[in-house]
């Protein structure tokens, strides 16, 4: 389990911005909505439900409480996304992908409009300090050789627009925390229950840290070639037993990509490799240069560096991680419940 699982609100808003070609002012238009046109949509993780009656409203694609996304703007955004990913779209799937993009853009508009209205209603604010702190956290999570600015530029997103999305994320999180109240933090009882209910996740299986040297056997190899390879690997084993450095011998002779690491395969568990290799690795004494074994891959010399028995991770060792995970789950559930409630009370019409 990861140390921390981050909430998906930021993903929602970043997705909204990255797939939208223009700003909100260009896409929103006030339009009246009648009660018989209301489309009660589902939770945010689901696709919007089909309205009972598809209405015709000229140039309007979808409206939420009187705020509308124009068809022309929607088509413009679909085209922008398609152009951005045109090299990755498989032949024959263009129409299907275009339909999926349209569905997602409509859903994004619904989510954003509902949340914006709730933020305005509650007068929730995001400070410049909070926004800058969020940016620094994102930068810290990006690989050292990548820059946030380059990522934004490649997606044609300005820093101002990105900051606006972060501000929205911060505001939504504040609403969710208000919804949770004093139930935001998991109790000791909840943490212990999760630990006991998921005991298999807190058990490290028996494993061995091994390194090996491989001489591959190919389908075209005749008995003579196989014999020569077997003789060669037996000689390599003798060299290592005689004092040659295992890593150096592996680097010069092994056919396995692990030779770049001196033949080191890291820790392996049962079921992760072929049976003859597994049997040898788990039965071999630590640091011993084992006998040459044969698998479907070829001839191997194996050395076990560590043999670790199955280990139960204590509650104390993972208590903080479980707490973070449960706290995140509470926030996710609260967000889903909030969206379900807001959508049920919103007038949503998909034309």
Overview of the molecule:
The protein is α+β, with helices and mostly antiparallel strands and 351 residues long. The protein has two domains: 9-186 and 327-350, Triger factor/SurA peptide-binding fold; 206-309, Roll (Chitinase A, domain 3), CATH 3.10.50.40. It contains twelve helices and ten strands. The chain has helices spanning 9-19, 24-27, 71-84, 94-122, 128-141, 148-154, 159-180, 188-197, 223-241, 246-253, 275-283, 315-345; strands at 28-30, 60-64, 67-70, 203-204, 207-216, 264-269, 293-294, 298-308, 311-312, 348-350. Helix 1 crosses helix 4, helix 1 runs antiparallel to helix 7 (159-180) and helix 4 packs across helix 7 (159-180). The longest helix has 31 residues, at 315-345. It is elongated and about 80 Å long. Mean pLDDT is 85; it is low at 1-55.
What attributes characterize this protein structure?
Triger factor/SurA peptide-binding fold; alpha+beta; 2 domains; 351 residues; Chitinase A, domain 3; 4-stranded antiparallel β-sheet; 10 strands
């Amino acid at each position: 389990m990861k140390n921390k699982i981050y909430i998906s609100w930021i993903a929602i808003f970043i997705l909204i911005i990255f797939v939208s070609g223009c700003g909100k002012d260009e896409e929103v238009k006030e339009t009246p909505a009648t009660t018989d046109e209301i489309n009660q949509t589902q939770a945010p993780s689901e696709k919007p439900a089909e309205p009972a009656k598809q209405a015709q409203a000229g140039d309007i694609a979808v409206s939420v409480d009187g705020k509308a996304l124009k068809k022309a703007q929607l088509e413009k955004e679909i085209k922008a996304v398609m152009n951005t990913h045109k090299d990755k779209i498989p032949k024959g799937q263009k129409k299907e992908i275009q339909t999926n993009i349209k569905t997602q853009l409509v859903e994004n508009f619904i989510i954003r409009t509902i949340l914006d209205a709730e933020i305005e209603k509650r007068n929730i604010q995001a400070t410049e300090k909070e926004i800058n702190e969020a940016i620094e956290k994102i930068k810290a999570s990006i690989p050292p050789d990548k820059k946030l600015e380059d990522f934004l530029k490649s997606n044609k997103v300005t820093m101002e627009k990105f900051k606006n999305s972060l501000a929205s994320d911060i505001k939504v999180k504040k609403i969710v925390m208000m919804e949770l109240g004093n139930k935001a933090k998991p109790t000791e009882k909840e943490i212990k229950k999760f630990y006991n209910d998921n005991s298999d996740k807190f058990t490290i299986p028996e494993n061995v840290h091994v390194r090996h040297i491989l001489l591959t056997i190919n389908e075209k190899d005749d008995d003579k070639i196989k014999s020569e390879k077997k003789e060669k690997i037996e000689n390599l084993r003798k060299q290592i037993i005689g004092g040659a450095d295992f890593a150096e011998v592996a680097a010069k002779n092994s056919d396995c990509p692990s030779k770049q690491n001196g033949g080191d395969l890291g820790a392996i568990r049962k079921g992760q490799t072929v049976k003859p290799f597994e049997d040898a690795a788990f039965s071999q004494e630590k640091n011993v240069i084992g006998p040459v074994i044969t698998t479907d891959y070829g001839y191997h010399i194996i050395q076990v560096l560590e043999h670790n028995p199955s280990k139960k991770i204590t509650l104390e060792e993972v208590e903080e991680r479980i707490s973070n995970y449960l706290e995140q789950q509470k926030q996710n559930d609260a967000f889903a419940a909030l969206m379900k409630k807001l959508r049920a009370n919103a007038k949503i019409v998909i034309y």
